[in-house]
Design goal:
By secondary structure, the chain is α+β, with helices and mostly antiparallel strands. The protein is 14% helix and 32% strand. The protein has helices spanning 25-33, 54-57, 115-119; strands at residues 4-5, 12-13, 49-53, 66-71, 81-86, 90-98, 104-113. It has a five-stranded antiparallel beta sheet. The protein is globular. 22% of the residues are buried. The model is unreliable at 1-11 (pLDDT under 50). InterPro entries: DUF6802.
Length: 125
Amino acid sequence: MAEFAGSGGTPQPFTDPFDPSGFDPSELAAWADELAPTTDLDGDGAAETVVADTEHWGVGGDWGDGLVVATDTDLDGSSDRLSVIADDGRYGVWEYCRELDGSGRWSRLDTGSLEYDVHHGEESK
């Protein structure tokens, strides 16, 4: 089934606001790494996660305001997992992966839209 974004009127084809040609997860991680972690997601007593509104990052584009969750899962001081949720329900999740040769890259794990769940009505099914 095709995925659509937008509400009301004629459905529009889903566009990916996190397309690699316009969205760089390493840039977002560098921004998050400048902030002090305030949230402990795994319950170990150490704050390893930055949670912020994208307005503070200065994100523009076609997806408006949203939520950024940047987590340093190995506590090395650098974010290695990013989750971004746009105000219209589109989301993306990335993880920093180390290659065998020691180099690293950001890998997109998931992307999609929560848009149809927002309405909570029969028309959203």
